[in-house]
Amino acid sequence: MNSWIETPEGGRDRGLRALGRAWIEAMIRPRRFFANGVAPGDQAPGLTFAAAVAAVFVTGWVATEPAAVPGIAENATLSAAVVVLVVTALAAPVGLHLTAAVATVSLVIASLEFDGGIGFRERGGVSETVQVVAYASAPMAIAGPPIPALRIVCGGYATLLLLVGVHTVHGTSPLRTLLAGLPAATFGYGIGYRVVAAGRALLG
């Protein structure tokens, strides 16, 4: 999970510039990005990307809504820094792998249901699913400010990217893509990034 392959391509290079390029490519050329930027067993770049997205998201959130920061330390700035650190180092990796687990189980169920297990044997591996979930979260980097409409739009686009990634990497049919992608998107982006809460706030 923490190893880099020797000949990275697409968004899997090291450094801040590579992260920025991966974000842009995932946002504007997702099909090409998922086809070229996802490799078997190459989870570390995706994990780094997901952590960076989570860090930018929570930084934008605490910067625009200081009242949301719990009083962990003696002053608000230090408390916000602790929140960003915990989200980046702990919550993001755990959330990524839980969301990927939901997507993997959904893929297996959809494959067994519609292909008699054939689709399960032909699909990409779990590491590719982790990477797809990570890179599909790209829009959530700009969803930090507590603006319900913004979070809903970003969550919708992240869901679309996830569906594109699942279809591109796993070669699923449109129906299986929806069955595999929507539960993971609901859990990872809807709950993890508070898109569902934003929808409730907007409707309320």
TrEMBL record:
Keyword Protein biosynthesis: no
Transmembrane regions listed in the UniProt entry: 46-64, 76-96
A cellular component term, taken from the record's GO annotations: membrane
Annotated compartments: Membrane
Pfam assignment, any one: Yip1
Annotated keywords: Membrane, Transmembrane, Transmembrane helix
Membrane topology: Multi-pass membrane protein
Membrane found in the keyword field: yes
Residue ranges constituting the Yip1 domain according to the UniProt record: 25-189
Name of the protein in question: Yip1 domain-containing protein
